[in-house]
Design goal:
73% of the residues lie in helices and 0% in strands. By secondary structure, the chain is mainly α.
Length: 106
């Protein structure tokens, strides 16, 4: 291939595909949020002795409390599955925005 020949731009997706993509992102965000909220509210953490140990400093107890809360919530499928779908929607959003910027430059 000759390096002097101009590259042909890729065909742009139709407006229907753009709208469908953004609707899917909105559905991923909007439909998963109530499930994540309910799973987080219904979560009761197990007793952890390190969180009430008076030998641990206040800061260490707070950091451990946050750590165990995050691990506990993410290890439950009732929260983890909607969370992964929500994050996937975020990735789709940034991909769509990146493609929209490319189509404006062409």
């Amino acid at each position: 291939m000759d390096p002097d020949t101009p590259a042909t731009p890729a065909p742009q997706p139709s407006i229907f595909r753009w709208v469908l993509g953004f609707l899917m992102v909105g559905a991923c965000w909007g439909l998963t949020t109530p499930f994540m909220r309910r799973a987080a509210i219904n979560y009761t953490p197990p007793a952890r002795p390190s969180l009430t140990d008076p030998n641990n400093s206040w800061l260490k107890r707070k950091v451990l409390g946050i750590w165990w809360a995050v691990i506990g919530v993410l290890s439950r499928p009732a929260y983890a599955v909607p969370f992964l779908l929500n994050v996937t929607g975020s990735v789709w959003f940034f991909i769509l925005i990146g493609q929209a910027g490319k189509s404006q430059k062409a």
